[in-house]
Design goal:
The complex is a heterodimer of chains A (819) and B (127).
Chain A: H1 2-13, E1 19-22, H2 52-57, E2 60-63, E3 68-72, E4 77-80, E5 85-87, E6 91-93, E7 97-99, E8 112-114, H3 118-128, E9 133-137, H4 141-152, E10 156-160, H5 173-185, E11 189-191, E12 196-202, E13 204-210, E14 215-217, E15 220-223, E16 227-229, H6 232-236, E17 247-248, E18 260-262, E19 267-268, H7 277-291, E20 306-310, E21 313-319, E22 329-335, E23 340-346, E24 353-359, H8 365-373, H9 395-401, E25 407-409, E26 414-415, H10 416-424, H11 431-438, H12 448-461, H13 478-487, H14 493-500, H15 509-521, H16 534-538, E27 541-542, E28 548-550, H17 561-573, E29 577-580, E30 586-591, H18 596-605, E31 618-623, H19 637-648, E32 657-662, E33 676-680, E34 685-689, E35 701-707, H20 709-726, H21 733-739, H22 743-751, H23 759-771, H24 776-782, H25 784-787, E36 805-808, E37 811-814
Parallel strand pairs in A: 1-2, 6-18, 8-15, 9-10, 9-15, 10-11, 17-19, 31-32, 32-33
Antiparallel strand pairs in A: 3-4, 4-5, 7-16, 12-13, 13-14, 20-21, 21-24, 22-23, 23-24, 25-26, 27-28, 28-30, 29-30, 33-34, 34-35, 36-37
Helix pairs in contact in A: 1-7, 9-12, 10-12, 13-15, 18-24, 20-23
Chain B: H1 2-5, E1 20-26, E2 34-40, E3 43-50, E4 55-60, E5 62-63, E6 68-69, E7 75-79, E8 82-86, E9 93-95, E10 111-112, E11 114-117, E12 120-125
Antiparallel strand pairs in B: 1-12, 2-3, 3-4, 4-10, 5-6, 7-8, 8-9, 11-12
Amino acid sequence: MVGLKFCEKLIARSNEFELIIYGEEPRPAYDRVHLSSFFSGSSAEDLLLTPAFWYENNNIKLHTGELVIKIDRNEKSIQTHSGKKDHYDILILATGSSAFVPNIEGVERNGVFVYRTIEDLIQITSYASKSKTAAVIGGGLLGLEAAKAMVDLKLETHVVEFAQRLMPRQIDEDGSAILVNKLKELGIHIHTNKSTSRIDGNGKLEGLTFSDGTSLKTDMLVISAGIRPRDELAKASGLNVHQRGGILVDDYMKTNDENIFAIGEAVVHNNMVYGLVAPGYEMAEVVVRQLVHDQIKSFKGFDMSTKLKLLGVDVASFGDAFGETDGSIPIILKDNCNGIYKRINISADRKLLLGGILVGDASQYNLFHQMVANKMPLPNQPESLIFGKPNKIDESSGVKALPDSAQICSCENISKGDIVFQVTQNGVTTVDGIKNSTRACTGCGGCTPMVNDILKITLESLGYKVKKTLCEHFDYSRQELFDVIKVKELKTFNQVLDSHGKGDGCEICKPAVASLLASIWNEPIVHQSTIQDTNDRYLANIQKGGSYSVVPRIAGGEITPEKLMAIGRIAQKYNLYTKITGGQRIDMFGARMDDLPDIWAELIEEGFESGHAYGKALRTVKSCVGSTWCRFGVQDSVGYAIYIENRYKGLRAPHKIKGAVSGCIRECAEAQSKDFGIIATEKGWNLYVCGNGGARPQHAKLLANDVDTDTCTKLIDRFLMFYIRTADPLTRTATWLNKMEGGLDHLHEVIVDDKLGICQQLEEEMKGLIESYHCEWKKVVEDPELQKQYKHFINSEEPDPALAFAEVRNQKLPANWGK
Amino acid sequence: MEILNQLRTHSTEDISEIKIWFKAARVSDFPENGGACVKYKDLQIAVFNFSRRNEWYACQNLCPHKMQMVLSRGMIGSTEGDPKIACPFHKRTFSLRNGQCLNGDEDKISVFPVKVEDGFIYIGFTR
């Protein structure tokens, strides 16, 4: 990764150099930081940092699978294991590191792995398929990453750590205790203070024996006990190396040969090995600047602050995490109830934040890290930083207070001043613009929220009103366009664009206007298919590899055995992968585009309708079984869910809408996580609105309680119509409510009290939409003209030759993602 | 037909290097302001009928971002007057004039010249 970054940085500054790369692995450089995503479904190709042809396009000669075994420093040449020879003027060693394997008896047994390269992962995956339990030696950052991988492989996972605590380099005892609890909740067994003395087994491993006499049975073992710089080539070539490993370099990354530099994990600078990617990138920058003789700087060490999410648990440490500065005072919040640990260390004079540790909730990491790096003054009561209401600190006001020198993007080393400069001097007004001009946000992406805030604050300081217009083609917000289309009775995208926009439209305004037209007139969207997003255009969900998935409506999750068999028969006939969805229906994946009309003809013949899984529309109304069967149920939740789902089916909205009905307070349908959720009471129904799963889960809020069925339905009519009229494009109800002035009180006044006097109109508009419902697939199945677009080739009957599938767990899955 | 014959064509290559004009399909086979995929030898070519501008464009069907054969199913549009195609997978956009990626670091895509004659679409290839 560091070697590639060096190349990128060099070609960005100069075309004077001929670049040649030799790499021992069979692949070009790949993303080791996200290696564990390989186990959650990414392929080796997904992990490549750039495709192989990138090198060719930039005139870089890439030799993979070639291990350099000799450097002739007098001749300035290298030789590989296959005998290839090459000359250099300047040599950069970015040989990285290898996994450190401690010398334990039995370490050579089958089933013992390290966690370092894609080849390691491939071997681990294949061995895991015949294993039930796995142990990981090493409770550090990488060890826990490896543990996550074992969990992803569905193995019972044990972590064995030599030290008293997990992540000993980043967090303290108390932080570790909280982390251990969290990981235990996830089913991971943690064994700290254990030194492995023997790996047992006969040929293949069967278990571990520890020095305290205890033992642990396991089918496989992953060793992740640290890294060792790869310095053997440097050593053999007479370059100076550290006694404990690592190529010695000066502040300019130069070795004792003036034509040879070394960067990344392979080097020791000032007695430190840097096992993270950001310092490696900084080293690359230092070398590049020397080579192009421009703004030469030295490597000054690197802030090792980190924030990461391990198995869903936030862990961060920054600055002086352990309070090692003289006189530093720790302030500690330890919340065993919520699994949160926060420690900040402040200076003896109580004026500065020195560093700290966050476990369980690291949302303040960016702010704290900046406070340390920029020596920003502490508030009068520094404890208020971690005690008090969560998220009370407005991050954007923190951003405002940052000095221009504050580093915002650590991957690319971009300061706040760099971003402000782009806005004030170069007229950049979008985050995409900032990404293009500075490359901020393009690495790990963690700085995007801060870049957004800086952009907004800077634009506002320049007097820009940050107006919510759709895109460059429309100077209107979605809500304004809703009124325009309705009042002027506009029916097509071209009419709207000609009368109220400019240019030719784009991928932002076309689907937004399409959604408005559907929400206002409810005419078949198939008649304007090319302004729809791809799923709406083909009335199916495009999936990896270019095949589609098909979801018929199964209202309320209720289905007859006959219909179940019909789905089974059709899925078998067209060779489809089937899966039960979260919304209580059945998704059929892997359909060829040209098969879609035939599949739907058969589904419709069996009495199914479109499930609108492809649309920003009502998806499902989930239900629990309710009073019909359940001994706790107090109302007929299934019956009501089916009624509601059929009432709003086909309803198009700014974003997808999900509902649920629970038959009693036990809430088995999870209605409080839905856009609208209905929970039965002894007297009627409680109506909750604006809940959301997704990236930021939010519970729905109570809008009305103990209402009868008709009132409840009427309130949902008004609520959904008000949402459709006023929300911005692609805004879920939860976000819509969060941004609404007056919040839930205001929503209650509009929907329940009819303060604006619009409820009758809302109900009438909803009635019009319900009455004009049609099944879109029925239209396509009946009209050969509409089926034309489902051919892959316009000039051949052949299906897409690029489609490819593999078989996993007796079903097919896409095979060609990201090749 | 006269009007169709006057349609503008676009190319990034010198049109004089085009050796083959491949007769792909009828004008009426293509959706308005949308695209379809044309098979030429082993190649998949996305062809777009930008009827709002009275223009035709052709480019490779493969999106270089995730290597998916889908650009013909994408949405066309313009940015500051320049025609572009948005990939349906992750909305990477590419200029239809020169193939440049407009919102990311993806590689350039190949574009091909298009001409319209007697109600048919022809795509130009150098081989």
